[in-house]
Design a protein that fits this description.
Helices cover 41% and strands 12% of the residues. It has helices at residues 26-29, 54-66, 77-86, 107-122, 138-153, 163-170, 187-197, 208-216, 251-266, 275-298, 311-317, and strands at 42-46, 70-76, 91-96, 127-130, 158-160, 181-183, 220-223, 228-231, 236-239. It has a 9-stranded mixed sheet, with helices on both faces. It is globular.
Length: 327
């Protein structure tokens, strides 16, 4: 199990190799305050379609509240104005097009215009989340596959959640052999992954998670549930601190945004043996604590937006929480 301490002095300190030990803490992952904008991370969210605008907002605003400096949302044109109205802090790019906006004649040109924009921005990001509110539009999905390939070519950590996981079911080559890909399936999404890649193994099998990581050959998988299970190629961790009994929509989007930020921060620390394993423990612990605190105030009426004000105080409270970093 993963030990947790509840008290923190909230200090940010420079990280050196000799301060790490068998069990690093959340404080070891969090960087010092930056002198220039952007040094604490620039996160991109790929998602947001005409039907779903809340999910990319939740992921993007969570990244900012956690402490990254800039948060970008790359979405469908129809989703941009609603997302902009949710928060002036987000940078919203309405680049993505839907199937109804292209024809067989201009499809290739439209796709290339989108990729031209993304080639400019991808080098300015430090991590990427793919999937919140993405939907299943064929042309958008086609473009997002190309964006994911571009991000991987630049070695960006990428978090695939929601509809991003559906993309992997159809395009497993995207994450094959890529050790900076993170999948965050819920119960139904894990079942779907197993049906695609482990047809002879039941999702309830204790070995299913490890087998799925091996089948996909590369990505780290965070299996969300009553206990969160994190599996890399050679290490496993569990997070089971108290969360809340209310499971409202949007909590997974907050977790995805946190995971991208912590992934960026942890990969800056060469002394960590399993940086993304530590990053996902931080994300799970903080999401659970925010949910626990929000539920204590709101009870049954709690919504995902109620977790957002708890992110800053929750991080301060978890600064000395211990993480597993297997040697």
């Amino acid at each position: 199990s993963v030990r947790r301490d509840d008290i923190s002095d909230g200090l940010f300190v420079e990280k050196t190799a000799d301060m790490f030990h068998i069990n690093p803490t959340v404080q070891d992952i969090v960087p010092p305050y930056a002198s220039q904008k952007g040094e604490c991370g620039k996160i991109g969210i790929i998602g947001g379609c005409p039907e779903y605008t809340g999910a990319p907002y939740f992921a993007a605003i969570t990244a900012l509240k956690l402490g990254c400096d800039l948060s970008h949302v790359f979405c469908a044109e129809e989703a941009a104005i609603p997302i902009k109205t949710y928060s002036p802090e987000l940078i919203v790019h309405p680049y993505l097009k839907t199937e109804s906006q292209v024809t067989p004649a201009n499809r290739g040109n439209v796709r290339e215009d989108i990729m031209k924009q993304m080639r400019f921005w991808i080098t300015r990001l430090s991590a990427l989340v793919i999937g919140p509110g993405l939907g299943i539009d064929p042309f958008m999905s086609e473009c997002v596959v190309s964006i994911a390939e571009l991000a991987i070519s630049h070695r960006l950590p990428i978090v695939l959640d929601g509809d991003g996981i559906s993309l992997i079911c159809k395009n497993p080559r995207l994450v094959n052999g890529y050790d900076r890909a993170i999948l965050t399936p819920n119960v139904n999404e894990f079942r779907r992954l197993c049906s695609y890649f482990l047809p002879d193994i039941q999702p309830s099998d204790p070995n299913a998670l490890r087998s799925l990581v091996q089948a996909l050959n590369g990505p780290i998988i965070l299996q969300k549930g009553e206990t969160d299970h994190i599996q890399t190629r050679n290490a496993h961790a569990e997070v089971h601190e108290a969360g809340c009994p209310r499971r409202c929509g949007g909590q997974g989007d907050l977790l995805a945004g946190m995971s991208a930020v912590f992934a960026d921060w942890s990969l800056r620390l060469p002394a960590l043996r399993n940086p993304l394993l530590c990053a996902l423990q931080c994300s799970c612990k903080l999401t659970r604590l925010c949910a626990h605190r929000a539920f204590a105030q709101k009870g049954r009426s709690m919504m995902a937006s109620d977790l957002i004000p708890e992110i800053g105080p929750g991080l301060e409270a978890l600064m000395h929480a211990s993480l597993v970093d297997p040697r």
